[in-house]
Write a structure and sequence with these properties.
alpha/beta, Arginase, Chain A, 8-stranded parallel β-sheet, two-stranded antiparallel ribbon, binds manganese (II) ion
Length: about 325
């Protein structure tokens, strides 16, 4: 397998061949060829409770990410040497059928985990997490869950639909080997968190950190507490990074932009710390490139992904 990126050539070409995630070689999910991380797209727009467009997220992310090197100059760290990573393509989605799509996503995550690699999913709207946590939870005895999100996502259903982008937190907490006690949402703010979802979170014993609380404690202390709760007594941590937790000014390219979110700098810091917690599976959702002609949202998403992956390589 060869990478599309090279800095060896006289031209230092980083744009050649087919655009893949971070220019990594392609490999089918069925045979990763020994890679330790598999990035896959989930071009999924259905079940969305907000504005549409996240199905174009994986393509935009591939394009933007193909411009980045895997070298961290500040730490002298070569990410792709430490974490051989492949582009495993896009997970099969079936737009008319959310249930079958969730099964497909769950199968993908299990398949990657069974090969001893880290699944990293690029969405797609947040409902894809419902399938992904199902697949990941099946590979451990007890799983913790941390969501970086402006929204609780604890809606019992959205107009009767249980596989919606308003439901990933509750569907995951309902998994028998997850439960509310190890479920944490971090970064909640804005006026799209209705009373019934707050009450549901309390009923299920889900912990959430609002922005005011995070500010009060300080970002690093609050996140350390959040990770401690999510990982207490578990043998695997699932991380879902909803990009709408980022301030709308820094991240306009999303279906539900919320002013007052994390700054780009804070987002990168959160990502690094989450990576250090050694998750068993990661997803990054709600990049909807149509709302951001500048492409800066996709580029920030790339930075967040790189920080998370680099964090997993730290001792
Ligand atoms: Mn969400």
């Amino acid at each position: 397998m060869t990478s599309n990126h090279t800095t060896d050539g006289a031209l230092g070409v980083i744009q050649s061949g087919v655009a893949t995630f971070f220019g990594r070689p392609q490999a089918p999910a069925t045979d990763l060829g020994g890679a330790l991380c598999a990035i896959a797209g989930v071009p999924w727009d259905e079940g969305n409770a907000g504005r549409n467009g996240a199905n174009m997220g994986p393509r935009a992310f591939r394009d933007a990410s193909s411009w980045f090197f895997g070298y961290d100059a500040q730490r002298g760290h070569d990410l792709w040497s430490a974490l051989p990573t492949v582009d495993a393509g896009d997970v099969a989605v079936i737009p008319p059928n959310a249930a079958r799509t969730m099964e497909s996503i769950a199968d993908h995550v299990r398949m990657i985990r069974d090969q001893g690699a880290l699944p990293f999913l690029v969405g797609g709207n947040h409902s894809l997490t419902i399938g992904a946590t199902q697949g990941a939870a099946a590979t451990v005895s007890r799983m913790g869950y941390i969501a970086i999100d402006a929204h609780l996502d604890t809606a019992r259903d959205v107009a009767g639909e249980r596989l919606s982008s308003g439901c990933p937190t509750i569907r995951t907490a309902e998994l028998p080997n997850v439960g509310g006690a190890n479920t944490v949402v971090f970064g909640v703010h804005g006026w799209l968190n209705p009373r019934d979802q707050v009450e549901m979170a309390a009923e299920l014993g889900i912990t959430w950190f609002g922005m005011d609380r995070i500010e009060e404690l300080g970002l690093e202390r609050a996140l350390a507490e959040a990770i401690e709760i999510a990982t207490d007594g578990v043998d695997g941590l699932y991380v879902t990074y909803d990009l709408d937790s980022t301030d709308a000014g820094a991240f306009p390219g999303t279906g539900t932009p919320e002013p007052g979110g994390f700054t780009a700098r804070e987002a990168l810091k959160i990502a690094r710390i989450l990576g250090q917690a050694k998750p068993i599976a990661i997803d990054m959702v709600e990049l909807a490139p149509i709302y951001d002609l500048s492409g800066i949202s996709a580029r920030l998403a790339c930075g967040i992904a790189l920080e998370m992956l680099a964090g997993t390589c730290e001792p």
